[in-house]
From TrEMBL:
Pfam families: DDE_Tnp_4
Organism: Acanthoscelides obtectus
Main location: nucleus
PANTHER family: NUCLEASE HARBI1-LIKE PROTEIN, PTHR22930
Assigned GO CC terms: nucleus
Record protein name field: DDE Tnp4 domain-containing protein
Location relative to the cell: Nucleus
Origin superkingdom: Eukaryota
Residue ranges constituting the DDE Tnp4 domain according to the UniProt record: 132-296
GO molecular function: hydrolase activity; metal ion binding; nuclease activity
Cofactor: a divalent metal cation
Length: 351
C-alpha cells in the first residue's frame, strides 16, 4: 500500500472542515495530483461528510488520476467494491453540484467579450468565442446497446463535446453522445447548437473587426466535421484551395488548437481516460464531467500555465485523439460570406 495513504484526518475534528492541515495524510496522498489550493477547494466541498473525507479524497484521486479500478481500490481500502463505487459517484456529484457555477458557469455577454479579447491577443483571431471539438472517451460496452456506442476506431466510446477558451479552459461541455455518432451529428443534437439557433447563448451583438469598419458576428471555431454557420466557422474544403483560403485555414487551425490542447492536458492529468471506463453510461457521464470541471479548477487556482508544458498533447492516434467521423455539411450563403470576410481580413493582415 502507498506509504502516503495514511488516514490521519480525524472523523470528529471540528476545525478540519475549515482548516485542512498540511500534515494531513489525505493531503500527503494528494500532493502528486494538485496543489494545496486545489486540495483546500476540494476539502471544502467534500468535508460536509467529514466521517468519510479521507476515503473520499483518496478514492477520487486514485480513480481519476491513475485509472485504478474499483476492485483494486476496494482491496487497497479494505472496503467493498460497491461501497468504493458509491463513494466515487457521490464525491463526483458533490464536486459537480458545488463547483460548476464557480468554475464552469455559462458565459455572459461580458464573459464572451473577454474570451474574444483573449483569442485576439493570444492567437490573433478576432471575434472568437471559443474552439469546439469532440472526443471519444473509451468505455465498456453498455448493456443492451448493440453497436450504437461502437465507433469507427473499433472500440466502444461515449462522446465528450467541449468548447475551450483561449487559455485552454472548458467553457462548455456536453457528454453522452454515442460513439457511433459523427462529430457534426453530436453537435446537431447538442444543447449548444439549440441555444445558438434560438438566441439563448448570450452571444454579443456583431462588432467591427479590429482596425476596420467591417461588421462581423462573433463566432466559434470548429474543424471540417462541423457545419458552417453564422456563429460557427469551419475551414474551407481542402480541394481547389487558393492561397487566401489556405491561409484562413491555417489561422483557424492555429486558434482551434486551444480545444485540442485542453483535451491533451485533461487526458494527461486524469489517466482514467487511458482505459475504458467500467461503469454504466450515466455514471460515465458524471465521471467525465467531473474530470473536466477539475481541469478548470486546477487551471483557475494554479494558473493557466500550470505544468501544461509537461503534458503531451500529441497523443497516439486511436488512443486519445481518435478522429471523429467526418462529413460534408451544407451551409448558408450568409455564413459563407462571413467566412470569406474573415479570409480577406487575414489575407490583408498576414502575421
Amino acid at each position: 500500500m502507498n506509504i502516503f495513504k495514511l488516514k490521519y484526518c480525524h472523523e470528529d475534528t471540528q476545525t478540519s472542515a475549515s482548516a485542512p492541515d498540511l500534515k494531513c495524510g489525505c493531503f500527503l496522498s494528494s500532493f502528486r495530483y494538485w496543489s494545496f489550493k486545489c486540495f483546500q477547494r476540494f476539502f471544502n466541498v467534500t468535508s460536509a461528510r467529514k466521517k468519510y473525507f479521507h476515503v473520499q479524497i483518496d478514492n477520487i484521486n486514485e480513480y481519476l488520476a491513475t485509472g485504478t479500478s474499483f476492485r483494486a481500490l476496494a482491496f487497497s481500502f479494505r472496503m467493498g467494491k460497491t461501497t468504493v463505487a458509491d463513494i466515487v459517484y457521490a464525491t463526483c456529484s458533490a464536486i459537480w453540484q458545488q463547483l460548476v457555477e464557480v468554475h464552469m458557469a455559462r458565459p455572459t455577454q461580458e464573459d464572451f467579450k473577454n474570451i474574444a479579447n483573449d483569442y485576439y491577443r493570444l492567437w490573433q483571431f478576432p471575434m472568437c468565442l471559443g474552439s469546439i471539438d469532440g472526443k471519444h472517451c473509451r468505455m465498456k460496452c453498455p448493456a443492451k446497446s448493440g453497436s450504437s456506442f461502437y465507433n469507427y476506431k473499433q472500440y466502444f466510446s461515449i462522446i465528450l463535446q467541449g468548447v475551450a477558451d483561449a487559455n485552454k479552459r472548458f467553457i462548455s461541455i456536453e457528454v453522452g453522445g454515442k460513439g457511433k455518432q459523427s462529430d457534426g451529428g453530436t453537435f446537431h443534437y447538442s444543447t449548444l447548437n439549440s441555444l445558438m439557433e434560438n438566441g439563448g447563448l448570450h452571444i454579443p451583438p456583431p462588432d467591427n473587426l479590429p482596425g476596420t469598419t467591417l461588421e462581423s458576428p462573433y463566432v466559434f471555431l470548429g474543424d471540417e466535421a462541423y457545419p458552417l454557420k453564422i456563429h460557427l466557422m469551419r475551414p474551407f474544403p481542402s480541394r481547389n484551395l487558393n492561397d487566401k483560403n489556405e491561409y484562413f485555414n491555417k489561422r483557424l487551425s492555429r486558434a482551434r488548437k486551444c480545444i485540442e490542447c485542453a483535451f491533451g492536458i485533461l487526458y494527461a492529468k486524469w489517466r482514467i481516460f487511458s482505459k475504458p471506463i467500467e461503469t454504466n453510461v450515466e455514471h460515465a457521464c458524471l465521471i467525465i464531467k467531473t474530470a473536466c470541471l477539475l481541469h478548470n479548477v486546477i487551471r483557475d487556482l494554479e494558473g493557466n500555465d500550470c505544468n501544461s508544458q509537461n503534458y503531451d498533447t500529441n497523443l497516439t492516434p486511436g488512443a486519445h485523439y481518435a478522429d471523429l467521423n467526418r462529413r460534408n455539411n451544407s451551409s448558408s450563403q450568409a455564413a459563407r460570406n462571413i467566412r470569406n470576410q474573415f479570409a480577406n481580413y487575414f489575407w490583408d493582415r498576414k502575421i
